[in-house]
Structure formats: C-alpha cells, structure tokens
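Protein: EamA-like transporter family protein
Species: Hoeflea halophila
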Amino acid sequence: MPRYFANLLLLLAGATWGAGFVAQSTAMDNIGPFLFIGLRFLVAAILLAPFAWLESRKAAAPVSTAHLRGFALTGLVLFLGMGLQQVGLLFTTVTNSGFLTGLYVVFVPFITLLVLGQRPHPVIWPAVLMTFIGIWMLAGGSLVSLNNGDFLTIACAVMWALQVILVGRYVGPSGRPLTLSFVQFALTSLLGLCAGTVVETVDLAAILATLPEILFAGLFATGLAFTLQVIGQRYTTAPQAAIFLSTESLFAALFGAVILGEQIPALGYAGGMLIFIAILLAEIGPILRPRPAS
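Structure follows.
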C-alpha cells in the first residue's frame, strides 16, 4: 500500500474518532465510564470477529505466541488509555480533555527515540510542534488550573502514545492487522465490563437509553477507526501516524459545532489550519528531502 494512502486511512480514523467524541461525552449522562467502554468495545469485537477469522484462515501460518502477547499488551494499554480518558472527563472540561489527549502526538517521537532508539525523520519534529500548537489553539489558547481530571488525561495521552507505538511494532512483523484489532477490542471489552460491574451501577434501562451512543462508538469510532489505524500503520512510521491521528481534535471541534452547536473561535480555525499544514509537512517532507543513507 502506498504511504500516502496509508496516511489517508489514518486521517479517516482521526475524523471518525472526532465524530465519536460527541457520543463519548454524552454517553456518561446515563451510564458509567467503564461500562460504556466495555459495551462499545464488545460491539467492535463482535463486528470484527468474522474478519479476523477469515484473516486467520488465509494466513500461511498461525499467529505466533510472541505476537499474541504483543496484541494483548496493546489491548491492555488501550484499556488504560480509554479508562483514564473517560474517568478524566468526569472531572475536567471537554476543552481541556481534547487538548491534553492531543499531547500524545508529542509523546510518540520522544518515546520512540528514548525507548526504541529510533530516530524520526527530521521533518517530524517541526510538524509535531505545529500540531501541538494547533491543538492548543483549537482549545481556545488557554487552560484553566489543572485538576485531577487533567492529570488523568495527561496519563491517558501517555497510554495513547504507547498504543500507537505498540501497533507500529507488532502489526508489520505479524502481518495480522485484523487479529491485532480483535484481540485488543476483546480484551478492552472484558476489562471494561469487569470494572463496570464491580464499581458502577448496571441499569438495563440506562443502557438502552445510551444504545445509540454505544452502537455508534462501537461500530465506527472503535471497530472502524481503530482498524483503519492498525492497517494504516503497517505502511508508515509511528510519529507520522500520531500526527495524522491527532486530527481527532480538529474533527471533534468541527462535529461539536455541527451536531452540538458549539462555537469555534477564530483562533480555533487558525489552529485547524496549522494542523493541516503539519499534515502536509509530514506527508510531503520525507518525499522532498529523503533521509540520507547511512
């Protein structure tokens, strides 16, 4: 798959996540955060199960135990990221949550460099900085005093960065993007349902009232978007993927304006343009200026 097409899939994943942010923020009016996580990922796992099975049938060899462990680790990190974000939204504003979650675009290249020893293409660093500033501008250019919810969301951003890196590490060597997606969905669902039944109230009427958000988040913001992420990351780097996926903040602001009637300030439009320029830089820069051969 050409790299530009893989990056287009990642951009579509970011757009779908942005639309899902509306459902994610309204679902907790009726049910707890962990129950919502468990149910949305259960829907996604059921949706993806037959495709993962077909992928396994067509594979030349069974997936290795080492790769399955990597898939499970990715699912654990995904659950921690989702849990921290959902619980953080109970204590902080949507503006702060969107901005602080977007910090993963900054964390990915640093973790890649410090932990894995892999140097990103030099053009990634200014693109990361532009993306970070763009997300800050989308958030209105200011943050209120940090509270416990904000710190939970910062921890969530670290988990998102690790999830992006783990996907990039295991999806290529395993050649099983749908299996990876299914394993991380199923594990996240199991952990979310277990946590939800222990610490939250399970009310069937409340679940039925939240069914539209559960189905949208499960089918599109989870099943479709995370699978697009896994497929796209087979053909690009983790730092570049983080930049394209971070457009979630841009699309969340746009869908919030269209669906919820939220207003986007002029500074927010400028931030969106800066993110778009960063995407072009990440896409075109490595082509115009290839990394010198060692």
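Remarks: The chain has one domain: 3-285.
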